[in-house]
Amino acid sequence: MGRTWLRALLGLSLLASLIIGPAATARAAPEEPGQPTLYFPWVPYHDALGGIDGITGAITVQNLEVFPVDVTVTDAAGRTLARLTLNPRAAQTWDASELGLPEPGAGVIASATWHDLDDLAGAGLCAGGSTVVSRGSQRGTVDTATLPAPAPRTVDAVSVTQGGKVFAAGVDFTWEYRHGQLAIVWSPKGAEPNAGSSYTLTYRFACPLPRIAGVEKHTVGTVGVRTTSATAAVDGYSAIPAGDVALAGNGGAPLEGQSRWVVPIVQTNNGWNSVLVITNVSGKPTSVSATFYAAGGQGFAGPSAMLLSGKTLKAGETVRVDLRADAGFPEGAVGAVWVDATHAVVAAAFRVKPVTGMLLTTVGQPRTDDGAASPTEKFGPLVFRDYNGWNTGINVANLASVYNQVTVTYYNYSSNVVAAEMVTIPPRAMEYVYIPATGSFGLGESQVTAVRIAGTAPLVAAIDEVKYLGGQGQGHALSYPASRAQGGGREAASAGTPVNGRVLYEALLALPLVQKGNPSTGMGDTSGINLFNPSGAAVEAWVQFVDPSGVPVAPTVAANDAEAPLRFPLPAGAGATLSTLNLSEQPAGLVGSAVVGAVGAGTLVGVSNNVNHAVGGDGSAVYSLAVTSHASPRFFRTFAVSWGPDAQPVTDEQGTPPPYRATVTVSDQFQDPLPGVPVQLAVQSGPNAGRVVSATTDGAGQATLAYASNGALGLDTLEVWVDGDRDGVRDPGERETRQTSWTLGLSRALAVEPASASAPVGTAHTVTVRVTDGSAARNPVPGVAVACALAAGSANAAVAAAVSGPTGADGTATCSWTGANPGRDTLTVAAAGQTAAATIDWLAGGP
Prior knowledge:
The chain is mostly beta strands. It contains 4 helices and 62 strands.
């Protein structure tokens, strides 16, 4: 299927008359699109950029989680533009008019919060607790609760209940948390508990942040992500994630925490122009500067030009610099722009070629020396080498403060290395490698390759594919950023979890905008997905399509509406291509989203070209698939109990009650240990009925539950309950029962009764010898031999005490003798290795 679509893609005349040389590159996407907040530097609305008028944008935001999230869209100054709940893996599109943006556009921010934190608590993703609070004596006052130590650093959510009544946060009460103190403020004019009554306060903390991904698509002549023959040109970019904004404040030498960005390419050559856009997203006034460094120069040691110097931006304000009109750049300039600001900003460059109606967008990257945050090795899933007239340019900007030695290695889709090149890039410099077309040689598959771009320091790379032969659809070019690879993992069915019907992945790629055109004409917006496994191990790509509400669509849907992804095995170094136009079962005109699970030991990187051949000019936009590690929560799947013995003495030889132990091991959907799960052992009947022991599984997914007997003999019926969904309810499949018999203890305790007495001389005296197992229940020990003797020095030492024999069923025996002489006798008793004594004073006078 992949090869067929590739031939169709090239055969449908994705042609261009663009002859711009090696420095023309594509949009550079952010490294980690999956974040709780996304920044769109500029969403145009009837805008004029660099000589092309009427540009209008639309944003698409995708939920990468398996739980619903609430998405809020604001402008860069924080004014709310839209709100919506997104189901798992669903996406929503808003165009500039639907957002109510002013002309000519604005910076836009999308942020996500969990729709219901109880979902996360049930999956063990949040910690939490509860406490009972007494309502104050006056309405509208504040109640304060001190949370148990160790108090959480922050609290994510609070709920208040009283009996069956649930009080609404924001309507009935508000709350504040500071330094371990949680204040419940009853100032809203809603309901509240009666004065002096008690209510339950439940709080959640240590919850993970939800992840979303986003793309922007802008068009000329029409509005929205659907394009037609009335559309003159199309382009787009991926949103900048919050992680990149944070990284930009700590790159290179942190200095005072300035926001520092690198826009890897701007140009004014071969008819191109560039408009640099910088938006203040800090919420406070900031000063911003921008410096241009020419390609092929010496970076920080070579010539440069200030585009902006100390420009003041109000909160949410955007500054634009047209390189030709505002900066006076001559024809032939190509290079990178470094942006520095006092506080957080985001940046992008819109590149336009009015003569051919072409648009390209390059998003700023955080300036960093951190190879972990911005990897030194990146990949391109689709590269042409002398392929049917296509030219390729790979532009690499050095993000680091040291010289960067970069090796570019090309692979065909059969994983063979076909070529390699090397270039050394100074700090603040940009270099490129160029693969010109020498003619049209047909559709030789060996010339379709992927690329590995490996540096000795962090880098950003952009890949251009240009076919400059004339013909239908001229003015098109394929452009996309090289991306980091997502390490593979495992998949698991979600049956029995709160997200039943989804496929769970440890690692996935995400595509917020997927479209399908008209299969009959080959026209209309159509998404192609190119995948590459750059590792030395195999991986499988599990491709799942959903509609805007998150419902699976054909051909990746089961009869019961569950997800049924397509599976593509990718050996080490191999690639694959998928086009929605070739999926006959998929609805024509689809506007949806997709996730691609990376299953196996290998890695996966992907790019999607969104193209409509009916567009008059440049009809394509390209998006990197979002890299999303640790994609699924660890849902409870099963547990095993290692029970204690079937029978156990109530004491050991030392008389200590030995605990009965049951060890519980809890596993998740991936058969891994599942920590943080509440478990409980309860004695349902028997001598220890009512005993309850609770614990929580540790990092190994284990918890040991132990209780000691009260000493009574008998059969305990035990139940282990694993609250896998953490809802406090003993659900089917969460319980296991067992019986254990408590038997006579192993220790022995000896007692003589009475311990002291007096009696007249000539009478008989009897003492009772009692042997027990030393437990609290003093269980009798039968059959124990007993020896009794009067100690030396006793008044009647010569008298032999009569012993009744071994202890009986009640654990007792007797010793008897008659005192002939007045005075004190001391009787020594020996039994079961123990000794005891009793005294009697014989009184003169007789009976």
